[in-house]
Amino acid sequence: MEILENVEYKTAAVLFGGIGGESAGLIKSQVEYGGKIYRFKLLCSIDSDPVACRNHDIITGEETAVEMDLFRRWQYEAWHGHEPPSEWQEVTPWDIWVAFKKQVPFFLFLSPPCKGLSGLLPQAKSDSDKYQAMNYLTVSGLEMSLQACEEYGGGVPAIIQLENVPRITSRGKPLLRQIKKLLKKFGYAVSIRPDHNLGEIGGLGQSRVRFLIMARHEAQIPNVIYYPEKKPLRSIGSVLAELPEPGDTVAGGPLHRLPRLQWKTWMRLAIIPAGGDWRDLNRVDWQKLRVVHEPRRGAYEVADWDKPSRAVTSTAGPGRSNGVAAVSDPRLQINGDGKTNLFRVQLVDDPATCITGAAGPNQGAGCISDPNLKDREGRHPGVYRIVRADEPAPCVTGTRFGSGAIAVADPRVNTKLHPDSYGVQDWNSTAKTVRSANRIMQAAGSVSDPRVPDRPGRYTDQFRMQSIDDPAATVTGSTDVQNGAQLIADPRIKSAPRADTMGVLAWEQPSKTVIGSADVHAAAVAVADPRIPADNEQGVWTIISLDGTRHRPLTTYELAMIQSFPQYLPDGRPFQLEGCSDAKAREYIGNAVPRDAAVEMGNVILLAGAQAEAGITFEMSWDPVWVAPVNEEQPTMVH
């Protein structure tokens, strides 16, 4: 540990200190002037909230928080709506003096509760006795501190600063008049402005406009107090990019949890454009929007034989894997020396090749170009029909897919397939490489085969269905329906679909027996899947918005970092607050003075103290002045 002999400490005390944003900034402030290093020594941080006091000491690493209720009796009764308990005692100037460690602090900072003065509170509530009692803390806290210092220490703080919301200039005009009168009475030069941007003062990733009073005791600080150098605001992304991924509570601590929002809230967030708000929802054509599933990278990926494999995951399998699951294997040597029957399609007019024991077309078992599927006007028009997603569906029938059951052109599938997926090769061109995963959805495994004859002279009674009321067609010697043996529409069979046809199973019940022809037209093979979230179901989901980004809420940890709290506590843990809910933690963080802004304001206060100590009452400088000396104009006689 390095001990410096030329360090001089200026004492500081904080009223309404909360969880310690101002305190942490003052501790970090430091200026060098006249061969000395000036720093702050924190005497105390007074607050009525025991949880805030506890976290103040955790964040600052010093035990300087003092739990003290600064309400006077009438304020307590107005705020709580009842008399205080018997053990409650009204604070006196002596209690303040003891909290100050019986010293007059060089610097006094106050950040009184601002809820009653904020524009977020309706005017009627702000005017109520309850909130007027809270608002009066801006006056009573300052008055009691000055009284304690003068009565027991024989002096007053050299510099006083008070922070609040800008709306205090309208909702708190009577209070500001009392504060200004009080400070003038004790000999302070006062600057009162509602346009201080703490984001520019501290170089934060947020614009935070606040009301500040800066009071300089002219007898102790006859020189000016300079305004901190304004810094450019950072983008919010530059702050968040340095943090762990949201939801990583190991690296970011318990406050880095993503809030569990309702599904409809996540949907609204995804629809609102970046930089917009809820009002943009009124301009959204929601009928054209649909949530689609986007597979992870790696689905259907074919690994290169000559390159290292991707990570092996527990979900290995094409289409559902986010790791390696397929490989382009060069060991299958298909060339002029290979078998001639691989993937061979035989003509219907030629003799078959030798029947082998192989069990698939890629091993020698033949395929045939079957001409029996005839195209004619009488065929059912709904066979293999594809319905557009933006048009009504035709009548739902009980037939299977190839006999009239419809298919839909579903725009929700957004998969980037490999080149040649579902590819159809030209009969007159050279075939593309035959791969080991030669399925139609993975390679150009189809061909436009011209050998299926379609001629007008083909026999017309194939697959013919006769009416029960008409004479039969000529009986031929053919023994199957596709060559002329007729079918008849027999009205005597009163048939109905089997039980469970198009049946939907309940999620909570056991499945029915799985049969060999299990599809939706023949058995109960559909299920009412409850995993699609209901509108009011709460959870954490990732939805990629129209702009290609993820619209999500900020975690409480990220809000603290935007307020420039330290990423790690003095004890090494990620920043966190103890003894409070996540909602209360957000309130504490939002009420705090940003630490980095407090550092810069503390630096100019230390500089003013150093210059006063050195006797510098005037100097030339380009720096803007915060609190300048008051010029007393002398009347003159003009003759």
TrEMBL record:
Enumerate the UniProt keywords alphabetically: Methyltransferase, Restriction system, Transferase
**This protein's superkingdom?**
Bacteria
The answer to whether the entry has keyword Methyltransferase is: yes
An annotated GO BP: methylation
Q: Which Gene3D superfamilies match?
A: DNA Methylase, subunit A, domain 2 (3.90.120.10), Vaccinia Virus protein VP39 (3.40.50.150)
SUPFAM superfamilies hit by this protein: S-adenosyl-L-methionine-dependent methyltransferases
This entry's Gene Ontology molecular function terms read:
methyltransferase activity
UniProt-recorded name of the protein: DNA cytosine methyltransferase
